Amino acid sequence: MSEKPLAANHRLSRRTWLSAVLILIVIPATILLGIFVLDDRKYYFISLLIVFYTMLPFALVFEQRKPQARELIVIAVLAAIAVAGRSAFFMLPQFKPVIAIVIIAGVSFGAEAGFLVGATAGFVSNFFFGQGPWTPWQMFCFGIIGFLAGILFKKGLLRKTRLSLCIFGGLSTFLIYGGIINFGSSMMFTSQSSWQALLAIYISGFWFDMVHAAATVVFLFILARPMLEKLDRIKTKYGLIEPGAKKG
Length: 248
Hints:
- It is a single chain.
- With 248 residues, the chain is an all-alpha fold.
- It is built from ten helices and no strands.
């Protein structure tokens, strides 16, 4: 096999670039709109907008391939598994498998699917855990980790080994999810933002973030290999291919 096709295989599709713009610019701007313009009282509307944004890359066709119905069904099932997993461990604060499932989705079906599974799981599961101004923040955090997992796997920086997935899962849960959620909490629950208030929130949330990160590592260690193997078989059987990939 020549080096040229291999290098081309690591290129991000235009659908992924559109997703990156939506995720890194449009969605944060929408969350801030909800905070500063809508006074954090229209969180259902903001959450639905985020779901709509995550669906756009699947609806807009930049390439000669539309997402197949069976692909969207598998993505929906993964989101449902994440919701069920979060509900099943409701008695253990922060010890949830959601991010592990989201990472698996991103690795198996691509960055856009990873974000869609994470955002949808955050929105739907909060009908059980309670909707509020924190919902858009959780949707964004779950989704961005799945998106990043898909990007890093596409670039060859994240592998399907337990070690690689567990390291990424633990670090991303602690640094990305914990970092963004704690920042969001400072904007939601403090009337006057300050470095002292932000630092206090990060310190108070440290052990919660550690437990969450440990849970992600545990669930990835247990679930990653069997789930990825089954998803690979499904992709082979039904001809599901990653965005931008071409059959040889």
